[in-house]
Write a structure and sequence with these properties.
The protein is built from eight helices and five strands, in the order ααααααβββαββα. The chain is α+β, with helices and mostly antiparallel strands. It has two domains: about 180 residues, Lambda Exonuclease, Chain A (Alpha-Beta Complex), CATH 3.90.320.10; about 70 residues, no CATH class. β1 and β2 form a beta hairpin. The protein starts with 17 loop residues before the first helix and ends in a 53-residue tail after the last helix.
Amino acid sequence: MSGQPGNQTSTSRPALSPSRAADFKQCPLLYRFRAVDRLPEPPSTAQLRGSVVHAALEQLYGLPAVQRGPQTARALVNPALDRVIAEEPDLVAELGSEQRTQLLEEARALLSGYYRLEDPTRFDPQSCEQRVEVELADGTLLRGVIDRIDIAATGELRVVDYKTGKAPPTARALAEFRAMFQMKFYAVAMLRSRHVLATRLRLIYLADGQLLDYSPDLDELLRFEKTLMAIWRAIQSAGATGDFRPSPSRLCEWCPHQMHCPVFGGTPPPYPGWPDAPRHGDADATPQRAEPAA
């Protein structure tokens, strides 16, 4: 059925997330390594810092508006780290005391900078860290987590995403393309689950102190929806044969799986086959805030 409500989940089915869709567009073999083989990736301080900042912002918006001052936000960093440690212990297995102190300082700096971009005391989000799932007309299942959804008194819907990393200069354009791809993905999910066209897609670059607002039109999102369907058909076709080919690009420099990639003289592990099990579904169900190029 098309347009399932976003709070209904079908975790027994493979689904398309914005991260994995972008992976496949970038390099089908990278998609396989992450979504099919589920090869481990060394956690980074950037991932952990991003998770802490997102957790702190979620907690901030859970407070009454009058309590959402900058000092409160900075005070939420330590409990946010504790929460992330409890939920993702692998991310902090090798975090030393000096690294922990630096991470906390960087997270507080990002949150302080946030107040130069938005005033969280002036509005109440409709939801934060909202899990969404919707089935498109052809059966493609979209699944992901939206950082924040705002709804104005007049009914306009805004989808917001926080970026805590800095893109290397050589990858800036590709990073911004990937970020906007993610936002259009969520706009399609909102269109089909709530039957509402997002008035604004907002990217908040905390490290750069920048806002990027974009207003999609309906025809654009309908075309993008067809793109998502085509990506999922291509993934299923590759999954049936195991033919996930590498696609070399400038982003190969940051790929954590070079040792398994034929482009770098590596050999992929034996293909496990395309499953019916949920382990090949949305890898963003518990999102990692890697953002090495966003």
